[in-house]
Amino acid sequence: MIAALSANHLAALVFSPSLTRLYVVRDNDAAGRFAVERLVERGGMAGIEVRPLVPRADDFNTDLLHFGPDRMREWLVDQLTSDDAQRFLLRRNPS
């Protein structure tokens, strides 16, 4: 997990040699879209699958506040690979 916090920080990201897939949570603005497009290109050249996670509103914080965690989870499930969706979002902790 990496917190880049800005499009410029995403552009400066150095990939780990063991990385095969990278999910990028981006903002829904021109800078966020551009940064992810560049990261997808760079990742492809390095053999890394870069998958953007796109919010419904301007960013995921707004989504969380407006829709709540359950609806946000539903929105994200379709953006992850099926294996990752099962591992990170669909599996429930035993009581």
Question: SSE layout and pairings?
Answer:
Elements: H1 7-11, E1 21-25, H2 30-45, E2 49-53, H3 60-67, H4 69-77, H5 82-90
Parallel strand pairs: 1-2
Helix pairs in contact: 3-4
The helix content, as a percent range, equals 40-55%
Residues in β-strands, percent: 5-15%
Mean pLDDT: 88
Distance between the termini: 27 Å
Walk me through this protein's architecture.
This protein is mostly helical and 95 residues long. It has two domains: 1-54, no CATH class; 58-95, no CATH class. It contains five helices and two strands. It has helices spanning 7-11, 30-45, 60-67, 69-77, 82-90; strands at 21-25, 49-53. The chain has a two-stranded parallel ribbon with strand order 1-2. Helix 2 (30-45) links the parallel strand 1 (21-25) and strand 2 (49-53). Helix 3 packs across helix 4. The chain is globular, with a radius of gyration of 14 Å. The protein starts with 6 loop residues before the first helix and ends in a 5-residue tail after the last helix. The model has no long low-confidence stretch (mean pLDDT 88).
